[in-house]
């Protein structure tokens, strides 16, 4: 007989001792529960609405949700626009239900403010970024940078709870714009004609490599005579403010779009 640990079951028979026949039944083995072990990431970068369905056995996800960055301020006649504030960055862990569908919205960055020549004086602030969300988690967009003659001498503030970073003030005549706020530090004020720096963001490796999200835009420099550069897409960075020489005007940079990343095991 095999060395397996058999159980014995008796049934009645006319040919067995004590009128029974002995048969052997293998022992029952408890079923091993499934444990998710394959690292998986779902990344959403396209601006607009989409959905994600929680896979079987997945009950918790790590998330990164970043709002769109604010646009940089427009400039006119030796003035400089302020940098856009960064989109709010939210991280954490969320409980989910396997098979349930969750709505995801990726916010666009705010457009930059306008600036025109002396013959038609128009300068506008950068626009606020749009919010990004994963189910009930909402990361608001960053504030727009101010145009060259608005809110001068005020650097963009950093985030405060669920309040996103704010845009930097304009530089005024012959001065650089102030930096927009980031998620960990405020922007800096201008240094004469040079624009201030945007505040710092938050570094995360949820994507598999270290990336900085939610940095404020830099203030424009007086005399640079150029449009502000855009914030990097899918980072929520603020757009840079523009700079202008005498009798000219330029447009602030567009804020960077937001992103949602989900990390879990299947």
Report the order of strands and helices: EEEEEEEEEEEEEE
Strand order of the largest sheet: 3-14-5-7
* Low-confidence blocks of residues: 1-14
Give the CA-CA distance, first to last residue. Answer: 43 Å
Q: Structural class of the secondary structure composition?
A: mainly beta
Helical residue percent band: under 10%
Overall 3D geometry?
elongated
Tell me the fraction of residues in β-strands, as a range.
Answer: 25-35%
Q: What is the residue-averaged pLDDT?
A: 91
Number of domains: 1
Count of distinct strands: 14
- Structural Rg: 30 Å
Q: How many helix segments?
A: 0
Major sheet size, sense and barrel closure = 4 strands, antiparallel
What is this structure's SSE topology?
Layout lengths: L6 E6 L7 E6 L13 E6 L3 E6 L6 E7 L8 E2 L12 E7 L5 E6 L25 E3 L2 E3 L62 E3 L6 E3 L35 E2 L8 E7 L1
Antiparallel strand pairs: 1-2, 3-14, 4-8, 5-7, 5-14, 6-13, 8-9, 9-10, 11-12
What does this structure look like?
The chain has 266 residues and is an all-beta fold. The protein has one domain. Helix content is 0%, strand content 25%. The protein is built from no helices and 14 strands. A four-stranded antiparallel β-sheet has the order 3-14-5-7, with no helix packed on it. The protein has a four-stranded antiparallel β-sheet with strand order 4-8-9-10, with no helix packed on it. It has a two-stranded antiparallel ribbon with strand order 1-2. The protein is elongated.
